[in-house]
């Protein structure tokens, strides 16, 4: 906790530095990071579908980080680190929920599938 | 801010603040709002997980390829991205203490937000008209739930935006109003982050399936 009440009061903006340059940088990066995956999928430049999917997901991940930094002004020091802690906690829960659901349900689907190909049935 | 009062006579360690020091009103609002957003993020995580599990179950109905128009989604994404930057301009105007400028950019943001909602509703009505209703298949149920929840968030964000513009007009840039503008900024940008997930996992990866 800061000893000086004045610095605490100046943190009304959450201690972040809002600048035109920051917003414009974030915007330009977002446009690029949005346009490329759309172009990749719409034109099908990469022949392989799973390769395209991986590239698209990487772009999404990078764009989320860009938004976090330039638009949400996320820093490790915001709110004395509590914002980052809450974010990390959420990401951990999110990772468990997503990967767990997909993993379990995928295996359930695989094991419940009819063994025979339906088309071969009389 | 008072330092913990440790009486040297007793020489006992003090583990708590002897007296509650005053906090400025709303000093913890931003953190509290951030934690709300994180809880909202978990709602979306569950909806994404549901879509991930059910997204391939078409029940012999229409698949993403038959339904989605990527150029429309690209336009929609552009709308949301534009609204993000215009909100940023509003924040900059607020930082300079300009009430009118803040209101102006908030209204521009609202216009882009309404375009987004309009295009999304058009897309939904088009799909429903083609028989791709939420009842049709597990894929469509999870699709409408996920994308609809996001759209509902944007709608309520718009309600908040208009309310804030009126409040700014009446009270000006008071510290309470500044706080509200900053909270809505977080809310709005957060919805844009969620949309990145939606257009990637639902639309782009859906077309690749």
Essential attributes:
heterodimer, A: 122 residues, mainly alpha, 4 helices, 0% strand, disordered N terminus, B: 209 residues, Four Helix Bundle (Hemerythrin (Met), subunit A), 6 helices, flat
Describe, in short, the structure shown:
Chain A is mostly helical and 122 residues long. Chain A is 68% helix and 0% strand.
Beginning-to-end CA distance, first to last residue of chain B: 59 Å
| Main beta sheet strand tally, sense and closure of chain B | none
Mean pLDDT of chain B: 91
Give the chain pair forming the largest contact, with residue counts.
A-B, 51 and 50 residues
The coarse silhouette of chain A is flat
The chain-level structural class of chain B is: mainly alpha
Describe what this molecule looks like in 3D.
In chain A, helix 2 packs antiparallel against helix 3. Chain A is mainly alpha-helical and 122 residues long. Chain A is flat and about 65 Å long. Chain A has four helices and no strands. Chain B is 74% helix and 0% strand. Chain B contains six helices and no strands. The radius of gyration of chain B is 23 Å and the shape is flat. Chains A and B meet through helix 1, helix 2, helix 3 and helix 4 of A and helix 1, helix 3 and helix 6 of B.
């Amino acid at each position: 906790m800061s000893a000086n009440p004045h610095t605490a009061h100046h943190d009304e903006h959450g201690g972040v530095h809002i600048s035109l340059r920051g917003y414009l940088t974030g915007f330009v990066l977002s446009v690029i990071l949005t346009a490329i995956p759309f172009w990749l999928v719409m034109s099908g430049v990469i022949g392989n579908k799973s390769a395209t999917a991986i590239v698209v997901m990487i772009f999404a991940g990078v764009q989320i980080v860009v938004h976090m930094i330039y638009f949400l002004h996320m820093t490790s020091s915001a709110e004395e680190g509590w914002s980052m802690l809450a974010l990390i906690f959420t990401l951990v829960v999110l990772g468990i929920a997503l990967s767990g659901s997909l993993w379990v349900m995928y295996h359930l689907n695989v094991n419940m599938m009819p063994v025979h190909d339906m088309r071969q049935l009389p | 801010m008072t330092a913990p009062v440790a009486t040297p006579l007793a020489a006992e360690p003090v583990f708590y603040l002897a007296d509650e020091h005053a906090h400025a009103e709303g000093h913890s609002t931003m953190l509290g709002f951030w934690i709300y957003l994180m809880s909202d993020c978990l709602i979306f995580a569950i909806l994404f997980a549901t879509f991930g599990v059910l997204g391939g179950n078409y029940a012999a109905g229409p698949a993403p390829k038959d339904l989605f128009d990527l150029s429309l989604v690209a336009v929609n994404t552009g709308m949301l991205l534009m609204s993000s930057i215009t909100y940023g301009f509003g924040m900059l105007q607020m930082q300079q203490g300009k009430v009118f400028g803040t209101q102006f950019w908030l209204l521009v943001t609202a216009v882009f937000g309404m375009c987004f909602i309009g295009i999304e509703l058009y897309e939904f009505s088009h799909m429903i008209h083609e028989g791709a209703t939420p009842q049709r298949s597990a894929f469509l149920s999870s699709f409408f739930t996920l994308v609809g929840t996001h759209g509902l968030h944007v709608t309520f964000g718009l309600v908040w935006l208009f309310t804030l513009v009126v409040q700014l007009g009446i009270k000006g840039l008071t510290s309470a109003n500044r706080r509200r503008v900053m909270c809505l900024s977080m809310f709005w940008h957060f919805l844009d982050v969620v949309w990145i997930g939606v257009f990637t996992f639902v639309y782009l990866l859906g077309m690749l399936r």
